[in-house]
Amino acid sequence: MLELPILTQTFERDTIIELSSPAIPERKLYVETYGCQMNVNDSEIVMGVMNKSGYTITNKPDDADVILLNTCAVRDNAEKKIHERLDHLKYYKKRNRDLVVGVLGCMAERLRGDLLEKKLVDVVVGPDEYRSVPELISRAFTGEKGIAVKLSRVETYDDILPLRTDGIAAWVSIMRGCDKFCTFCVVPFTRGRERSRALSSVVDELKILRDSGFKETTLLGQNVNSYRDEQSSKDFADLLAACARAVPEMRIRYTTSHPQDMSDKLIETQAEFENICNYIHLPVQSGSNRILKLMNRTYTIEHYLERINTIRELIPNCAITTDIIVGFPTETDADNTATMELMREVQYDGAYMYNYSPREKTKAWKMGDDVPNEVKTERLSAIIEQQRIISGELNQKTLGTIEKVLVEGASKKNQTEWQGRTDSNKIVIFPHNEHGGYIVGDVISVKINRANSATLFGDIVE
Ligand code: SF4
């Protein structure tokens, strides 16, 4: 599972795309994305489908004829945010009675028809039914509400080119669904069973991205390690190698890996190619074997540490990040201590850390939610603080080193500084003036002279 902080994606500017059919009246679509990077890519797929049906994309909900929220159901809080956002959208509906509002994604799949009971919502579409969005929306314009939430065993949207906005980094889904059934996770129920795209279609998409000026691609899947091209029996390591060979000038990343399926072949492939980034996100979830068993994570801490050692051996400078859930049912202080010990042993570069959130339908739901909220919060604060210290110490070790930085553009905090990313996925801030001699998308050398737990700072060197 991609366990990244919730995000809302809107678009930098109006993307005006020529209508494919002049017979269709011009209508504008606004899409808001919540949750993981799979959702970001899914929104691009929906925009691709809608654009083909004659819609232009706007970044202003005020201007839109159609507003779609692409939603997340991984945690209760994520769903609460969507309900709040739907309440806000009533304002737009009051101003434009013809406005069509749709809910897409994991929450649509989970809540299905219940969402249509909200007067505001016209269309509900699950992750495997995005081809039907234009049809459902055109019916909604005639006043007919619509729902499509069937999960598929074959849909991969292989033939649809996602509509991406400007940028240098792209997300490419290589597979959909998950067969792991971790007991806390709703994804197998909202995104269905695992299926992979053809290797050739992924490679072709990367070539298109390179030709359109993208400099970096992240290959996405709930568990990329179980990718399999059915026709050629190629696995994820084969796909990664094929991508690295096809676009040697692009940086390639991937997420998310499952520790049980992280093969030697994959680590060796990553070590072999210069353009596959030295960065691995390897979710551990807990440092306690007892909790891992209850989570049905299917590996032990001993196995996990053995994988970490192999990564460190074969890719010495590899940055490693993880996901940790705090307060899983029955978690004791001793289990939490084991998690903290593991974090110190592995020395993660970063971690996404969350309180356990019970989700209906999952096995863990039936285990109860017996760790009191204040205990969860206390444990979470402790592991966040510990990770902050570890990340800070690791970043201090980069002082004086020269890092290859992919330039992303102006820093969010200070327009006289720009920012970029190292191959190990660390943000680097450096001074900028118009005579800098580089542009967005260039790879420059930066000597690091300052660092905190989240960011490196430095000066450009020749
Ligand atoms: S079931 Fe497990 S492996 Fe699959 S998406 Fe959920 S957490 Fe990840």
Textual characterization of the structure:
It contains 13 helices and 21 strands. It folds into four domains: 27-148, Rossmann fold (3-Layer(aba) Sandwich); 167-277, Transcription Regulator spoIIAA (2-Layer Sandwich), CATH 3.30.750; 281-397, Transcription Regulator spoIIAA, CATH 3.30.750; 402-461, OB fold (Dihydrolipoamide Acetyltransferase, E2P), CATH 2.40.50. Mean pLDDT is 93; it is low at 1-23. The protein is of the alpha/beta class and 462 residues long. Strand 1, helix 1 and strand 2 (55-57) form a beta-alpha-beta unit. The two termini are 40 Å apart. The chain is globular and about 65 Å long. It has helices at 37-52, 76-95, 106-111, 113-116, 133-140, 187-190, 199-211, 236-246, 264-272, 289-294, 301-314, 333-346, 373-396; strands at residues 27-33, 55-57, 66-71, 100-105, 123-125, 146-148, 169-173, 175-176, 195-196, 216-220, 228-229, 234-235, 251-255, 279-281, 319-326, 350-355, 402-410, 417-422, 427-431, 443-451, 455-461. Bound molecules: iron/sulfur cluster. Iron/sulfur cluster (SF4) binds at residues 1, 178, 180-182, 185, 187-188, 222-223, 258.
